[in-house]
Amino acid sequence: METKGTPAVNPKKVLFASLIGSTIEFYDFFLYGTVAGLVFNQLFFPNDDPFVSLLIAYASFGVTFFIRPVGGLIFSHMGDKFGRKNTLVISLLLMGISTVCIGLLPTYQAIGIIAPILLVLLRLLQGIALGGEWGGAVLLAVESAPKEKRGYYGSFPAMGIPLGMLLGTFSISLMSKLPEAQFMAWGWRVPFILSAVLVAVGLWIRRGLGETHAFEEEKQKGNVVKIPLVETLRHHWKAVLISLGAKCVEVGPFYVFTTFFIAYGTGTLGLSRTTTLNVVSAATIVTVICIPLMGKLSDKIGRKRVFMMGAAGLALFSFPYFYLLSLKSVFLTYVVSIIALGILWSAIASIIGTMFTEMFSTNVGYTGITLGYQSGSALFGGTAPMIATVLLSAYNNSWVPLAIFIGGLCIASFLSAAFIRNSKDDAKTSMGVVYPLNKANVQE
Fold this sequence. Notes:
By secondary structure, the protein is mostly helical. The chain has a single domain, classed as Growth Hormone, Chain: A (Up-down Bundle). The protein is built from 18 helices and no strands. The protein has helices at 11-43, 50-82, 85-103, 108-111, 114-142, 150-175, 180-187, 189-193, 195-207, 213-220, 228-235, 237-267, 273-301, 303-326, 330-357, 365-380, 384-394, 400-417. Helix 5 (114-142) packs across helix 16 and helix 12 runs antiparallel to helix 18. The chain is globular, with a radius of gyration of 21 Å. The two termini are 32 Å apart.
């Protein structure tokens, strides 16, 4: 349906815009995670104990997650009051500037303690930017979608996560072919600086978009609330808690399978840096292919069913995953990474955005989905590589505690999702309607 006075929305343009913007933001964000265990631990956080350097580097990676909810609240407040489009443009610009500055930053050897301080500050700016990106990108896609295709449309911003990871990993893998001295001196900086080109393209595409029909309808009805956060916590607090629990399985395993795996593969498993990065890249390619397919599946059988199948699958596969990795076979490493990240995780990531969107009314949609999502990222995402590193050290490189950790996150999300009504059955009540939470997609 087209709102009077609102220009017609080109669905393909909306899908491409949500995909490209999300991809660029996550490319910038994941570059840091990829480089943290390879470069930053040596150039910005030097220490006589390599374990301490690695842990501090991961801490600088993880601290960003705790600022993401702050960025999410700032941008979601703007998005629910003034619209989705301009908010997304600002978040993309902020991400681009901070990423390029990281690529230009002097090292600890050059300017001493100021170097890691500036690095962490720039990383915090990345977190603020990403905190505002995800919710807006999901709403841009889902609020522009036909009712029967919300899962498919909502999967496009989710594709930005593995695509961003793929671009980041590929760029570092390509630069790592340089001699070690050149890679450490300037090679790692190139992907950060080239982010400026990608951001310019993303800004050009997003500025040509109109506002979503769903938001315009709420605005014309006078349903725009004064303080979206207060409205969300008053009427949707159950949905926030459920989305927080559901987020565990989407974010924790992802950073174990990617960021932690890079250091685990090169250190514990004895794989080369190039092989480790190629494993992540191969699994990520499969993820990109599977995510829209899982989105389509959710339009047929419901978001809840797809999500719970993915969570149960990851829980069951957590022990085989680490056991087969411990065999130190390159072939098996590719296989288990593709199954875990490429197939099972994609079932969760593809529909979590749409599923969260259907739990909140449109006038607080940005705030609602951002609050649960970004808080979950802070608690279970940024800490995951650090927890995995500590567990590995505390239990003499045993993989069993790592498998228990992943399995626990999966079970927590599975139980949280049990309180969500099947989105396919309740699709007619899930978008563009202002309702108290107990009449929405949350079971009593």
